[in-house]
Amino acid sequence: MKSFTLLAVLGLVGYASAGYPFCKGQFASTTQHCTKFQFTKRAPPCVNTANCTTFYDISGLPDQGIDDHTAKMAQLITNVFENGNTVMGYAYVENLKDNRGLTKPPRDQTTFRCFAIVISHKVFSSPPLLSGYIGFTSGTNDAYTVVQEYNKRTNNKNNLYKFTPELARLSKLPFCDVKRGSVTKLGQPYFKAWEKSACTDPRFVETQIDVGRSMYLHPALKFAASVGVKSNIGKAFFYDTIIQHGWQFVEPLINIRRIIKLTGPRGKDSEQAYLIRFLNTRRSLMCCFPDNVWPPSADRVSDLTNLINSPAKWARNKDLKNPVNLAVYGVTVKGTENMNYDSSNCKKYKKSRGWSLPKGKSLPIPGSTKTCPK
Ligand SMILES: *[C@@H]1O[C@H](CO)[C@@H](O)[C@H](O)[C@H]1NC(C)=O
C-alpha cells in the first residue's frame, strides 16, 4: 500500500526534521546520525519490476504462527496509529470533495505520502485512492487483490465488481508509470461502493481482514522469525513496521528488510535488547528521511519503544496479555474491543441485525507468479 514512497521523494526538502518532537537527541537528523541511511537530495531512479511482483521473495524465510489474541492486539495497536482509535477502519475512505482528499482529519500522515507526489510531480493529475483499515491503495495491487477476492466470495455480485477492470488495468501498468495513480474511472463512486460494502456486508469486512493477514501479517511473522523474534509483542512490532513501511523491493530506501539490515544481526542480544535496537533504527530512519512526512510519524515508534524499555515493562508487555497504553496517542488497547464492525465510519448506515463475520480464509502470501495481475 505504501508503494508511492519513491516518487514522493521528489518532494525533498532537505533534513527538515530538526523541529519534530520525537526526532531529538539520539534521533536528531544530524549528518552523523543520518549518513548511514544514504538519503540523497536527488530522488533515486524508480525501480521497475521484471518479475511481475513488487515484493521480495520470502518463500525461504522461516515461518511462525500467532495466536488469535496476539493478532487482535497487533491489529488494534496499528489501527490506533493509522486511524487514531480502536475502531477498525474498514469503511474508511478519503473524502474526495475538495479533490485533495484531506478534509477528514488525516490518519497517520504517512498514509498520505502519495499526495506529496501530486504536489511535486505534475504528471500525476490525482493521487491514488486509499481505503479500508490499512489504506488499501488503488494504484498498487493491494486494493485490486481485495476486490478480486471479494468477487470470488460473492460470485461477482457486489458493489465493487464494476471497478475490477480498472483496478486490473492500473495494476498491470509498469510500476514506475505515474498513470498508476489515475482515478478518473474510480473516484467517488468507487469510494461509495467501498464504504457501503464495508458497512453492509460482513463478507467484505472478512475479505479485508484475510487479505491484510496474507499481505502484511503473515510476511511480518516470517521476517520476525528470520531474526529470532518470537515474543508476542515483537510480532506486533514487526506487523506495525510492515504496515507502515512495506516489504517491497521497489522501495529500496524504506522497507522492513532495510530496517532489519540496518539494525544488524541480533548476536548475543536478548530479544528485548534487539527489539529496542530495531525500533531505534526504524525511528532514526524516519527522522533522517528528508521530507516532512516521515519524521512526524516517529511518535508511533516512541509509543512502541515505551512498552518495553525497562525490565518491568518488558515483563508486563512481552506476551501482550495485559492492556497496553499508547502514551502519545492517548489510547489504551485492551484486546476486548469489538473488531467486527466499523462503528466510526458507518454511522449513516443501519447495522444489520445479527451482524457477524464469516469464518476467515487463509490466502497465499503475495510475491509469486501465481499472484500476478491477470
Ligand atoms: C523479484 O525481483 C526482485 C528484484 O530482482 C527481487 O528482489 C525479488 O525478491 C523478486 N521477487 C520474487 C517473488 O521473486
From TrEMBL:
Q: Gene3D superfamilies from the entry?
A: Chitosanase, subunit A, domain 1, Chitosanase, subunit A, domain 2
Coiled coil, from the record = none
Q: Which organism is it from?
A: Jimgerdemannia flammicorona
Cross-referenced InterPro entries: Glyco_hydro_46, Glyco_hydro_46_N, Lysozyme-like_dom_sf
Any GO CC annotation of this UniProt entry: extracellular region
Name this polypeptide is given? Lysozyme-like domain-containing protein
Q: Where are the transmembrane segments?
A: none
Q: From which residue to which does the signal peptide run?
A: 1-18
Give the residue ranges for region: Disordered.
Answer: 351-374
Sorted UniProt keywords: Signal
Q: Which GO terms describe its biological process?
A: carbohydrate metabolic process
Keyword Signal assigned to the entry: answer is yes
One Gene Ontology term of the molecular function aspect:
chitosanase activity
